[in-house]
Write a structure and sequence with these properties.
The chain is mostly helical. Helices cover 73% and strands 0% of the residues.
Length: 336
């Protein structure tokens, strides 16, 4: 089906998690993910001015609420390079909306509400500007783009499972932490790329605490101090990730496929964070794990992830930083 082809094009990793779910959950979360990628496309566009992005994000919210036709949005996206998978999804938003309308009414309502609020939150942040003053502001941004996604997942899982529905009040705050966990790791691994496109999601209070500025944070001669900032972010990510573990272990063990769909992104983030600690590549380029690590995590969790005790031990195993990283001194020599 076309929505699954789109899903694989924009994110093979998330496709792995989503496509092993029961059919109705697979359909619902695929549509949700693709609608959110339309929002991402508008937010991440490197050509549009911030005010224009905010305007189109609000238009997208109107499209979702059926107060504006989808063609009114896609008309503004025809100039984008359709070979970019995210652009392609946005240009074909009509197809995704058609799939949305085939879902049960309760699921449609939850998806529209959450994606709508996320898009409006993104619009507000575009108008705010490409800087984050403190940790509270960082959490607000991450809540708009990821915390609300955690809420949406819980809405869908609770609709599907009476047991999860009974635990929804407990799960909701944990689902926000789950979203913030994944997004904090995204901030860490994307620090350099974000800076090059004009955005710094690192709180000002973090880098000023070690005597750096928004720009000097990325200067090669300041790597030692900058790595202290990475440590602050990594510690923050660790706190969110641990709450994310509580989210997963709160699901009933017999819902193994739902647990897997949540634990794979979380454990990928845990391992990515381990690769980011004490790794100067976070600031010079990008730090990420290899495909062999992805396969290993999927294999191990598929066989043993039903056990909450095992999951805690496996989390701690994945959180151990690899022994060898490029030393800061060598990184400095390469950068200069």
């Amino acid at each position: 089906m076309q929505q699954y082809e789109m899903l694989r094009r924009v994110s093979r990793t998330f496709a792995l998690s989503i496509e092993q779910l029961p059919q109705i959950l697979r359909d619902s979360i695929t549509v949700s993910y693709l609608l959110l990628r339309v929002s991402d496309c508008l937010e991440d566009n490197e050509i549009m001015e911030a005010d224009r992005k905010a305007e189109l994000l609000r238009l997208w919210a109107q499209v979702l609420s059926e107060t504006a036709p989808v063609e009114k949005l896609t008309h503004h996206l025809t100039h984008l390079d359709s070979s970019d998978p995210e652009h392609y999804v946005a240009q074909n938003a009509q197809v995704v909306i058609e799939q949305l309308h085939q879902l049960p009414p309760e699921i449609q309502e939850a998806i529209i509400e959450r994606v709508n609020r996320t898009s409006l939150g993104m619009a507000r942040w575009q108008e705010h500007g490409p800087y984050v003053d403190n940790e509270e502001e960082m959490d607000d941004y991450m809540h708009q783009v990821a915390g609300r996604v955690g809420y949406l997942l819980t809405d869908i899982f609770a609709w599907y499972s009476p047991i999860i529905r009974a635990r929804k009040e407990q799960l909701m705050p944990l689902s926000r932490e789950y979203g913030l966990a994944l997004q904090t790791v995204n901030v860490i691994r994307g620090m350099r790329k974000d800076y090059e496109r004009g955005w710094v999601f690192v709180p000002r209070t973090f880098y000023e605490n070690v005597g750096l500025t928004r720009d000097s944070l990325f200067a090669p001669e300041n790597l030692d101090k900058a790595m202290q900032v990475v440590d602050m972010l990594a510690d923050k990510a660790e706190r969110h990730l641990w709450h994310g573990m509580s989210y997963i272990t709160a699901f009933p063990r017999h819902q193994h496929r739902i647990r897997l769909a949540c634990m794979w992104p979380l454990f990928f983030a845990v391992r990515t964070l381990a690769f980011s600690r004490n790794n100067a590549n976070v600031l010079l380029a990008e730090a990420k794990m290899g495909r062999d690590q992805v396969s290993m995590i999927m294999r191990h969790t598929t066989f043993f992830g039903w056990s909450n005790h095992w999951l805690v031990r496996y989390y701690r195993f994945l959180a151990r930083p690899p022994k060898r990283f490029m030393p800061v001194e060598k990184s400095l020599a390469i950068s200069v």
